[in-house]
Amino acid sequence: MEDPLSKDDSPRVLKVLEALKQASHQLQAHPNPNSDELNSSSPIKALLELQTESDTILSKDPKLSALSQHLFDLKALVETLQETRGRYGLKSFLARRVSTHSISRVAGSIESEIQAWIDRESIDTLTRVLREQPFNNEDELIKLLTQLEDRVSQGFNRELQDLVLKSKLFSLLEPILCNPNCSKRVRESCASAIGALIRFNKDVFVGQALMGPTIGSLVTMASPASIRVLCSLIRSIKSPLVDEIESNGEIPKIISFLTFQDLEMRVLAMDCVVEIGFFGRKEAIEAMLREGLIKKLVELQRTELGGDLIDMGRYGNNDGEENEGVRVDVVEGKRESTQRRFLERHPFASCVARFAVQLEVGEGLRQRERRAFKQEILVRVREACVSDAEAATIVAEVLWGSSP
Q: Of 291 and 334, which is predicted with more confidence?
């Protein structure tokens, strides 16, 4: 008999496993099958059929012994439940309650074991494909990388982490990310997967990212996808990553993205600058200012995608607002909604003040450094503006948007 879960047929293997996992999940919510369900395409019937085939399918892998036992327990519980059907009395009632509770619990264990099985198959398939260069099927590789990203994004799981570490998956992804001979979309998918692994467990994977060429490759790739991953990594790793970016001389490249023709790159570069402003220490902020950041932000704010938020009450105390709790909440909610819509259409609105605010409230600077940078920003704003009116507006936003 052909093994229906042969590793030579991985896509079908994973499809079968996902269906069985879904069946066990449904069974947890509805653990009280009737006779019709046992004779139909119900979740419990699928699991009982797997138990019938367990000698053929599961006995070949010692890691599946727990799943085999859970399926055996499930069959016994279902048989016990069926025996109590049609009987009356307290004893039969309690027996049915105990059986349904036990079925739900065992179904949960089955789901966990099947998920572990899926993880092993998926990681094994992905590592095998990553080693096959040049890649024969880029679409399949990207699909596998997306599945990995989705899986680790569900939250920490120790067994999954062990699989990733044993497979040396990070060490397989990084060279592909850094290889300019690989296609851009494969490199971007590897970048997203690396970012997801770091968010999955920073303590384990941050060191590999900081010591290797990952960060430099994300900047050098200079695509919206790579900068999006870089922003997410800055939010995850914070000041240590900004220190690494600054020490490797990547700040000028990031600032140069603000003048790219591609709008998405300019918007993401702005996001990156804001994140660096929040987490960056003195050296990183100085490096950005030396690259003419304030002048570039003033120019972006001057465009049709810029503008200012000062007239919308974004930077101010709004002392004229009514001081009644519910009324203030309603007014503030409407204002925030209006500002959000405005920023969606004008991503560079008040960008100078938004950067200054990040320095003011961020984690990287001492208080005296914040005050010094605030004064330097004001000087550079006046130098970059083409009119007194423009300078007055931006200076007012910077002053109102940060504490004195």
A: 291
